[in-house]
Design brief:
By secondary structure, this protein is an alpha/beta fold. 37% of the residues lie in helices and 21% in strands.
Length: 321
């Protein structure tokens, strides 16, 4: 298994002489650099998808959000609640604007993207609390948003995939809104970092072991938080009774083995899982579709999984692409 030529070219550019890695930047600078990265290497937002900025009016901690709807579809739509990546520290609605609009277009659904609170200003479990609140808020406000509270999926990439998985667990345990699919794009599922991929791809990738530790220290200043299931959903007491999961991984990713372990445990405990591994890809490729041709393939797969879940189709597969 080798890196895809586009991964190699991208990493050579990212690690050019003089470039500073994320873990050596201050928080404000890291956020600026993250925005520059996404704006430079993503496709433009699809213009046939309407967007509406709104506020999730949580008392004491309101959240900005953005609702996407394909303009050719009227009436009540199924909806994906989406959480962006960025190590719980960087990233925002604008960074994932094109990703969310494309998911809405291809899956024929609405997408609600949430600007949850970021660390280190708001450490663990602030982002978890925001994600769980957003899911309940979405279900409660479904009629005013013209979305179907009976067809809600949760999803996100990296740290956002972590929040989506945790929101699904919380909804299961608290009698929260029913979730029809977890769309988990290279999710962070175990903060201990013990599996082989953490060592195999520790350096010279977009996400390195040093960057992982930096983000963890921003979000989880107490080491005891690492084994809290709300930070490491793989360590939850049980995973039975969770909604089906579509788990998308990059082969050359430090957290790939953690995502695969989560898929394996979900399957073992009776959940439907479609695990797809994209060979030669690195962490972050899904949203950088101006660089990675494979991102378009992965987007089509994710959109098919969403459309199938909204239609009530079953998913059971493990494959590499």
């Amino acid at each position: 298994m080798s890196l895809h030529p586009q991964s190699i070219a991208f990493l050579e550019m990212i690690h050019r002489p003089g470039a500073r890695p994320f873990h050596e930047l201050g928080v404000a600078e890291a956020r600026r650099e993250s925005r520059k990265l996404y704006f430079a290497f993503r496709q433009p937002r699809r213009e046939t998808v309407m967007l509406r900025d709104l506020v999730i009016d949580r008392p004491g901690a309101p959240m900005d959000a953005r609702l996407y709807r394909p303009d050719e579809l009227a009436g009540t739509l199924p909806v994906l609640l989406f959480f962006h990546g960025g190590g719980w520290t960087v990233g925002d609605l604008d960074c994932y604007d094109s990703t969310c609009s494309e998911l809405a277009h291809q899956a024929g659904c609405a997408v609600l993207s949430v600007d949850y609170r970021l660390a280190p200003e708001h450490p663990f479990p602030a982002a978890v609390d925001d994600a769980c609140y957003a899911l309940s808020w979405l279900a409660d406000h479904a009629p005013s948003l013209s979305v179907d509270a009976a067809r809600i999926a949760v999803g996100g990439d990296s740290a956002g995939g972590n929040l989506a998985a945790v929101a699904a667990l919380h909804a299961r345990d608290s009698g929260g809104p029913p979730v029809c699919l977890q769309l988990l794009i290279y999710p962070s599922t175990d903060q201990r970092g013990e599996r082989p991929s953490h060592q195999r791809y520790a350096e010279n990738h977009l996400l390195t072991q040093s960057t992982i530790r930096h983000f963890q220290q921003c979000y989880m200043p107490k080491i005891t938080d690492y084994t809290d299931w709300r930070a490491s959903p793989l360590l939850a007491g049980h995973l039975s009774g969770l909604p089906p999961a579509y788990i998308l991984l990059a082969s050359h990713d430090p957290i790939a083995d953690d995502g695969a372990a989560y898929a394996e445990r979900l399957q073992r405990e009776g959940c439907e899982v479609d695990l797809v591994v994209y060979e030669g890809m690195i962490h972050g490729f899904f949203a950088l579709d101006r660089v990675f041709d494979t991102a378009a393939v992965a987007m089509r797969g994710a959109a098919r999984a969403l459309a199938g879940a909204f239609a009530g189709a079953s998913i059971v597969a493990n494959r590499k692409e």
